[in-house]
From TrEMBL:
InterPro entries linked: Nucleotide-diphossugar_trans
Protein name: Glycosyltransferase 2-like domain-containing protein
Family matches, as Gene3D superfamilies: Spore Coat Polysaccharide Biosynthesis Protein SpsA, Chain A
Highest taxon listed in the record's lineage: Bacteria
Length: 526
């Protein structure tokens, strides 16, 4: 890492023989040891400490950050860095799933002054961005454009949602439990240093990724500074790291809150129960400590040709919690109004109107910021829409959904579980869970007005437009599978049985199948 950083500085600053240069570092214990011998005219700044007065303009500036979290941290702060025509950002450690650090397009002088931009991988997991401007531009503009951040004011939350989130969660860990001790700025497994704890207590994406392979993490935090320790635990919980930190000191308990402290008393051994535990952890920590003051309103689009299932579907939508929900029901060949009740928007479509056209008509009547598709015969957790709202927020994806991980087969009356790699960017999610902002829906033209494969066509349109699709956890949704001829996906029961990693008689939700005493999902048993 040291050689990589010094090579960067030699290339873009030292060899250019600049009269005044600034090297600003964040996320490192000893920046001076990292950067090596700089020219006397170069100012070295540790952004993790109080920053001295800096020149207003520099001939060149290099910002060296350890993780994307450090980049977001300084970009969202109020620190004023010098203006310069030559600017370099070196991100040293980034997880494999992290996107390249490319600036977001923005109007204004800085964009007009941009002369050239070069980005490339550097080392095992790093990135370098080099920008040249025709006139001196504040370095803060480039940093904020890389993270889509604006200066943050007011009380600082314990969790930075951009770095501490469930992306990359492993449902099948490779290693057993680990016990970590926080001591002298390090996180130790026995006498072995596992991670360096930043002074703030905020772990970066790469730090969290190193802990993913463990079945669970037990934190012994009594030697840590209270606020840094609370940030560490809240960040791990928000990331969904199966976490145990019993006997929480009073000061940390006051910072974390009772609900989260109760969840970190134990971690189940059963892998399915462990994942449920992770889902409860992340949901609680994100809502309490990630600074989320408002979630978008959601319009649920229900298109159905089965009057007998309208009540079943509406009951589940009505059970959704934590989100502002609007319901639009489109009846295929019948009027759903008598079945829908007060507060539900309804429309009747002729029997020859294709499914895609029905959904578009329902979307025209929707006023929510987000649209989501709902299937009339499947089962949904009461936290289904809340979890998708959170996943959409922390992933930044244009479309979010879940896999069909739990499938109930009506013929043999069994529930099977398929293995999916969740909490990742994918090309596909279950059609009954499509969740996307109205702006994205309109941008891709909505659903194709066809009778079948409308879900797949919408996913394809988002991909072709350059959008990302994110697959959240699959334990809040159970797909009902009847006779094959009734489905677009016309595979027989054997197809699903042969690919199952688990199987249970009757219909089961994840909580019924696991050994946990309480349900993280609470899927209705109707």
């Amino acid at each position: 890492m040291i050689s990589e950083i010094r090579a960067t500085l030699d290339e873009v600053l030292v060899e250019r023989d600049l009269a005044v240069a600034v090297v600003a570092c964040a996320g490192f214990d000893e920046p001076a040891q990292l950067v090596g011998g700089l020219r006397d005219s170069t100012v070295l700044v540790n952004l993790d400490e109080p920053v001295p007065e800096l020149p207003a303009v520099a001939d060149g500036i290099a910002v060296v950050v350890r993780t994307p979290a450090d980049l977001s941290w300084i970009a969202g702060g109020t620190l004023t860095l010098p203006s310069s025509r030559r600017q370099v950002v070196h991100l040293v450690e980034a997880p494999a799933w992290w996107r390249p650090p490319l600036p977001f397009a923005a109007a204004g002088f800085a964009t007009r002054a941009l002369g050239s931009l070069r980005a490339g991988r550097h080392g095992d997991s790093g990135w370098i961005l080099e920008a040249h401007f025709s006139a001196a531009v504040p370095a803060g503009w480039l940093l904020r454009s890389l993270t889509a951040s604006s200066p943050a004011y007011g009380e600082e939350p314990l969790v930075d949602l951009r770095s501490a989130n469930p992306i990359g969660f492993l449902a099948e860990p490779e290693l057993g439990p680990v016990r970590l001790t926080v001591r002298d700025g390090a996180i130790l497994d026995g006498a072995t240093r596992v991670l360096t704890l930043p002074r703030s207590g905020r772990l970066g994406e790469s730090d969290i990724e190193r802990l993913r392979p463990f079945h669970s993490v037990t934190v012994d935090w009594h030697d840590a500074e209270p606020l840094a320790a609370a940030r560490l635990v809240a960040g791990l919980a928000a990331a969904g790291v199966p976490l145990r930190a019993a006997d929480v000191p009073a000061e940390q308990r006051a910072l974390l809150g009772t609900a989260l402290c109760e969840l970190i008393e134990t971690v189940p051994q059963d892998l399915l129960a462990r994942e449920e535990h992770s889902i409860r952890l992340r949901r609680t920590a994100l809502l309490a400590h990630a600074g989320i003051t408002r979630l978008p309103s959601v319009s649920v689009l229900l298109a159905t040709r089965r009057p007998g299932l309208v009540g079943f579907a509406l009951a589940q939508i009505g059970d959704q919690r934590g989100v502002d929900v609007e319901i639009i029901v489109a009846g295929h060949g019948f009027d759903p109004a008598p079945l829908a009740g007060v507060g539900v928007t309804t429309l009747e479509c002729a029997g020859n109107v294709p499914l895609g056209a029905m959904l578009n008509l329902a979307a025209e009547r929707a006023s929510g910021e987000v649209l989501t598709k709902w299937d009339d015969d499947d089962w949904y957790s009461p936290d289904h829409l809340l979890d998708l709202s959170l996943a959409s927020r922390y992933s930044g994806a244009e479309l979010t959904g879940t896999p069909a991980e739990l499938i109930y087969l009506e013929g043999p009356d069994v529930t099977v579980r398929h293995r999916w790699r969740t909490e990742t960017r994918q090309d596909f999610v279950a059609g009954g869970t499509l969740f996307l902002p109205r702006t994205v829906f309109d941008a891709v033209g909505g659903f194709r007005p066809i009778p079948k494969t409308v879900d797949g066509e919408l996913l394809r349109a988002v991909r072709q437009a350059g959008g990302q699709i994110y697959q959240a956890h699959g334990l809040g949704y159970v797909l009902r599978r009847g006779r094959p001829e009734l489905h677009t996906w016309q595979e027989g029961d054997d197809y699903f049985l042969d690919r199952a990693v688990s199987r249970w008689d009757g219909r089961r939700s994840a909580s019924h199948a696991s050994t946990s005493a309480s349900s993280a999902l609470d899927i209705a048993s109707t």
